[in-house]
Task: inverse folding
């Protein structure tokens, strides 16, 4: 099933100039970029984004980190895009992420783990709506009309 998923390149990856490499990996997999923007997100938006973590001990640090510098928000499309992106990203703890994953190859620790990705279709819809209006998302043909991703 063709799905949309939300990905955010976090401030640590932007600061380390890894955006191109991260985007290249999703494109090489065969996902289609449907929308992209860059911004320093507000505390209010960060709190809405991470609402499920309110009250947890790590929440204040999470909000502080995600608002500490520019982030890149993206919407990717493809066959089973949610699970494909999560597999490509690797484990949240970069030290435990497999070689060949974004976090395993490029990450340093758990807090600064380069990327955020939606964990379900429902979450993807909610997160996409936080950052993108429908008229900011693009639909265009893939080569030969085929989706390349087979998660």
Result:
């Amino acid at each position: 099933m063709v799905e949309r998923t939300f990905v955010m390149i976090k401030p640590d990856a932007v600061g380390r100039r890894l955006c191109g490499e991260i985007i290249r990996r999703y494109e090489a997999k065969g996902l289609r970029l449907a929308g992209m923007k860059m911004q320093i997100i507000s505390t209010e938006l960060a709190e809405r984004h991470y609402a499920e973590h309110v009250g947890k001990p790590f929440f204040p640090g999470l909000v502080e980190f995600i608002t500490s510098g520019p982030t890149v928000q993206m919407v990717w499309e493809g066959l089973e895009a949610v699970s494909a992106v999560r597999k490509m990203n690797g484990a949240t703890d970069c030290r435990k992420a497999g070689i060949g994953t974004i976090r395993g190859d490029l990450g340093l620790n758990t807090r600064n783990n380069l990327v955020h990705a939606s964990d379900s279709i429902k979450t993807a819809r909610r997160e996409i709506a936080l950052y993108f209006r429908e008229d900011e998302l693009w639909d265009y043909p893939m080569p030969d009309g085929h989706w390349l991703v087979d998660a």
